[in-house]
Amino acid sequence: MAAAIDFAEVRVRFGEREVLRGVTAALTERRVGVVGANGSGKSTLARLVNGLAVPTSGSVTVLGLDTRRHAAKIRRGVGFLFTDPDAQIVMPTVAEDVAFSLRRKGLAAAETDRRVHEVLERYGLAGHADHPAHHLSGGQKQLLALCSIMVLEPEILVMDEPTTLLDLRHSRQVAALLRDLPQQVLVVTHDLPLLEDFDRVLVLDEGRVVADGTPREAIGHYRKLMA
After folding, report:
1. What predicted TM-score, i.e. pTM, was given to this entire model?
2. 186-215 as b/e, with b when 16 or more CB fall inside 10 Å?
3. Could you tell me if 50 and 74 are in contact, meaning their C-beta atoms sit under 8 angstroms apart?
């Protein structure tokens, strides 16, 4: 299987600071986790996948396309979930916010309504369709942000610290959702239990991949590193 996400000798520099240093990894697995201390380069790595960041040197290929030249096209196939869902909620009500994602599809109103209802039903928000989006709980906001992405049916989903602002119940709900998603998922997180049944985990330290393997292997290395 060809790599859906391929990092080749990627370096990223912001001014004098080198954030990523020669990262090479071909990601073919369905669920891949990335862990590391604050400042290790995790979020920058995630943002490379849909062109929110570009490498200073080396290359990032996603779905067979180079992110430097095809960022707009790649973003149509890559959904990105930020840590804080309030950063992604832009419309007054829940249903309007999900419908806003479909605005460029040129769909008839009835088809838009159908897709919105379907995705809200799937993620447990159908009963909140007309509710003010910013009055939802933290967990519900995260689900709304996910709905607004999944209604576009991306091939890859990138999640940057998706459980940081959630209580235990909603964290477990996100974990359960990740098990069932058909998309390839790349998750950057400090929530180590979230990754226990993932297919692969990468550990970043000072901009380098220092461990890459099963969750048990990689998380074990990370725990020793932090000790």
Report:
1. 0.93
2. bbbbebeebbeebbbbbbbbebebbbbeeb
3. yes
- Note the pLDDT tens digit of each residue in 134-158: 999 988 999 999 999 999 999 999 9
Determine the pLDDT at residue 2.
52
Which pLDDT tens digit goes with each residue over 174-210?
888 888 898 999 999 999 999 999 999 999 999 999 9
Domain ranges of the chain: 5-226
Q: Please name which of 136, 158, 135, 155 lies closest in space to residue 146, comparing C-alpha atoms.
A: 158
Q: What are the CA-CA distances from residue 169 to residues 46, 126, 172 (Å)?
A: 25, 19, 5
Instruction: State the Cα–Cα distance between residues 68 and 59, nearest whole angstrom.
Output: 8
Contact 21, 204 (CB under 8 A): no
Q: Residue with structure tokens 């997180």? A: 189
Exposure b/e, 9-41, CB count within 10 A at least 16 = b: ebebeeeeeebbbebebebebebbbbbbeeebb
Task: Judge contact between 57 and 9, C-beta under 8 A.
Answer: yes
CATH domain 5-226 topology: Rossmann fold (3.40.50)
Dist CA 164 CA 169 (whole Å): 13
